[in-house]
Amino acid sequence: xxxxxxxxxxxxxxxxxxxxxxxxxxxxxxxxxxxxxxxxxxxxxxxxxxxxxxxxxxxxxxxxxxxxxxxxxxxxxxxxxxxxxxxxxxxxxxxxxxxxxxxxxxxxxxxxxxxxxxxxxxxxxxxxxxxxxxxxxxxxxxxxxxxxx
Amino acid sequence: xxxxxxxxxxxxxxxxxxxxxxxxxxxxxxxxxxxxxxxxxxxxxxxxxxxxxxxxxxxxxxxxxxxxxxxxxxxxxxxxxxxxxxxxxxxxxxxxxxxxxxxxxxxxxxxxxxxxxxxxxxxxxxxxxxxxxxxxxxxxxxxxxxxxx
DNA sequence: TATTGTTATACTCTATAACTATA
DNA sequence: TATAGTTATAGAGTATAACAATA
Lengths: 149, 149
Hints:
The structure is a homodimer.
Chain A: H1 16-36, H2 42-54, E1 57-58, H3 59-66, H4 73-82, E2 86-91, E3 94-102, H5 104-124, H6 130-147
Antiparallel strand pairs in A: 1-3, 2-3
Chain B binds a DNA duplex through residues 25, 29, 32, 41-43, 58-60, 68-75, 94-98.
């Protein structure tokens, strides 16, 4: 006789998804705390960082690359613009579009914030061995990739 | 001469924290979608599941075990109570306390929801090999542990 | 592009009641 | 007792974030 369908071994902590979401919540709290010192929200840091990587972009394109809703990115960009970290220019080739780019001040704050994040992450992931971090990162990237955007 | 402090290799996708949070976001979306079919929020499922594991508990104790704010758990419990999935009784030994317990209907919905989550998780984490899932889970658990409650 | 509204979640603050310890 | 301090629950308000609909 097989065991019944009600499986006592199916606990909350036995769920990969729950473990992932819970760990991420705690890490995100640390991101928020570190970045708030520099006046950035986590999503604003992601936008600034990605924009710095890919160069001047249209807002829609940028939203895609950061994985944010095109409607939601507006307010984040407004904040970055007011702080002088980005500028927005109409695309002369298509005047519906805005070309967004990081300013020198934006590069500066990104650099400072990134150093603070580096220190925080080193501490946060200290429980993982160096070799583990590599495979962990690779698995997370593979997972995000497979879950699509 | 060493490379300057401005490190071009420090990209967003090179951050373990960012990878973790982004993957978790996508997994949580799937949790939300699956559970909404059964009328449960992710936090309500976590509460119900944990309560089913540990048995009748005080609300504060339950909040601690699920990692939720004691103030926030109230509304979730209200919803579970209205749906008939839990009952709340005053603790005669300490009348400030409510003793919360899962009802038979709560066990039923938990069982059904868990089966749906099982199927979703199998699909969601299909990009990880079986052996990888084990180490991945262990690393996530270790991480949460080290980041405290 | 931009705005508006909704929902989920997390955090802070306050209020009430009931318990504990102590003078 | 009376008082002060603590704890459990409850509610209000705010902030971040994701999503949908629409202008």
